[in-house]
């Protein structure tokens, strides 16, 4: 199975090197940014292709590692060529294979979503972390299990998703990863109001965040929960709400805390959840 990449950004770089180091044959890269394809090909020891057609002819599987909004238009260009028997793949966490590749059934190609559940932040380093990462697969065609087996052989953990579960899957990833940035930014803003610099705030929060996340992943959210909601401390929660000046911040605090009330109630059935929920109501001035 010879694998070609269309797009030479962080995802294409990382997956290409991951595959090459794992012994999977990679033909090379095509990109409308010629320099990017040259760089990726040099980095992976593969070839830079001058045209889509030449890459299609040389490859059995094609990974469209381009932004989500560009996948359909790139696939439309691919449809100008014979795709029968090819494997067309994308790496979007949000899109199913059929959503990303309109009309793909008419081409005779297998079509798959192969999403690494991992932040590919540095294109020359991230590939080293992919063994042990989760890859979530979805799609249609005779090679879905083949991809799962190959990725597992490279050290990845693999889950095949039903197409109808893709939205919930990506929402879960976003809540655990992207939304954390908003929470940390609000924490930093509050500490800056106490005289911390941005760097000092992040350094101060780091041990707290790392220890809490490690414990949470070990024992689960309910057992890891501490703080004023867990102990039913309505006075402290009211003070927190009073010092949050932005409406978005107050809404996030209220909404997340209401979810914590349920965890606290399950952990401590005798907790006064009613009083806590009253404090957390929208429009409460307490």
UniProtKB/TrEMBL annotation:
Domain Putative oxidoreductase/dehydrogenase Rossmann-like: 2-116
Annotated DUF2520 domain residues: 134-258
One Pfam family from the record: DUF2520
InterPro entries with a match to the protein in the record: 6-PGluconate_DH-like_C_sf, DUF2520, NAD(P)-bd_dom_sf, OxRdtase/DH_put_Rossmann_dom, TM1727-like_C_sf
Superkingdom field: Bacteria
PANTHER family registered for this protein in UniProt: CONSERVED HYPOTHETICAL ALANINE AND LEUCINE RICH PROTEIN
Protein name: DUF2520 domain-containing protein
Organism: Evtepia gabavorous
